[in-house]
Every structure is written in C-alpha cells, then in structure tokens.
Design a protein that fits this description.
Blueprint: H1 32-42, H2 46-53, E1 54-56, E2 62-64, E3 75-76, E4 80-81, H3 89-92, H4 98-102
Antiparallel strand pairs: 1-2, 3-4
Helix pairs in contact: 1-2
C-alpha cells in the first residue's frame, strides 16, 4: 500500500465538531503574517490583537489564547470557529497532525 492512500492529497471538510479546537490546552502557534490577517479580520491593530488574543510560549513564540475550558479563544460551541476563513496554518492542517493520524 505504501503512500498511495494520499497520492491525490488529503481531503477534509470541517464538520465544526470542535475536536481540534477543544480539549486540553495547547499551543496554536501563529506567525507575523497570520497575526496580521487575524488582526485585519477582527479590525484591530496588530498590537491590540496580540494583547487580547495571544500569549507567549515558553520558547518565545506566539500562540493563540485558550478559554479557561481549554477551547480556542475563537471557537464557540454550536457556531464553530469564529475566524475559520482566516485560521492559522496549524489549524488548516488539522486533522493531519501526527497525534491525530497516529491516534
């Protein structure tokens, strides 16, 4: 079988189940271009967006904040992702994360 199963690419349609947006808190890393896009989407200056929606990681990178429940700051049960069209690359790559694939 080898790698034939993904030769045509991985296809995935979000069902808004929240499995990749909820659970234990983690890091949703964002780079400067993703921060700029999300800030534009929220109609905020980048500095204001950083202050409200991000936190530093122990290794000095930037992550989106989580709610106290562990859910992504932009996820709302019943509505899904509030920034879906502008979500970071890390979010776009789910469910292809190693932890999910190796499950």
């Amino acid at each position: 079988m080898g790698t034939d199963w993904y030769r045509g690419g991985l296809r995935f349609e979000c069902t808004q189940c929240g499995n990749c947006c909820t659970g234990t808190a983690g890091s949703v890393l964002v780079d400067d271009s993703e921060l700029a896009e999300l800030a534009r989407q929220r109609e905020l200056a980048i500095d204001e967006f950083r202050q409200v929606y991000t936190r530093p990681t122990p290794d000095g990178r930037v992550s989106l904040r989580e709610k106290s429940s562990g859910e992504c700051i932009f996820y709302t049960r019943g509505n899904g992702c509030g920034v879906y069209a502008h979500r970071p690359r890390q979010c776009r790559s789910c469910p292809s994360w190693r932890a999910v694939v190796e499950g």
